[in-house]
Every structure is written in C-alpha cells, then in structure tokens.
Input
Amino acid sequence: MNATGTIDRPVTHDPQKQAPMTSSAGEPNGSAISDVTTTRDANTSRQNRTREMQLIPEALARAHMHERRREADAERQAQRLVAARRMQRRAERVSMRARRALAMAVMN
Output
C-alpha cells in the first residue's frame, strides 16, 4: 500500500522533502507562496518553529501541573488554618473550664 501523507499526518516532517505548495484553481494568483528554493535561514527558522510546536503540549502540561500544585498547596494551607482554628477553640474551652474549676475551688 503506497499511501500519500495528509495534512495531519505528512509522509515526512522534513520541510525540504515535502511537496511545495501550489495554488489551486479557486485561489487568486499570488496567494500561494511561489515555488522557490528556501534559504538556509528559512529552513532553520521553520525547523525551530516545528520544534517549538512540538514542545507546546509539554509546556501546557508543565503549566497545568504547576497550577494543580499551586491549588493543592492552597488547599493544604486552608486545611491547616481550619485545624488551627479548631485547636484554638478547643484550647479556649479547656482554659475556661480550668478557670471555672479554679474559681469553684477558691469559693469553697
């Protein structure tokens, strides 16, 4: 089976081995890039863009994980604050009980 590549899955990712873009009958003249040999700088920038495009999902995943880690840290901090307030109220109740016990002992 000798299938040609598609836009989503090209046969090759090397820009020099890909077929040049040509204008179709529905496009006006001059809308497509003319079939000229590209310079070395153009190939380098195209390859850099390709590399950057390949790294976009990795950067998105890294940003997503950073956001999830920040949310988890915020959640842990909120849970610690709730626990600290709970312990403070418990300590205040114990302190009031001790005061009352001391007052009762002094009155008797």
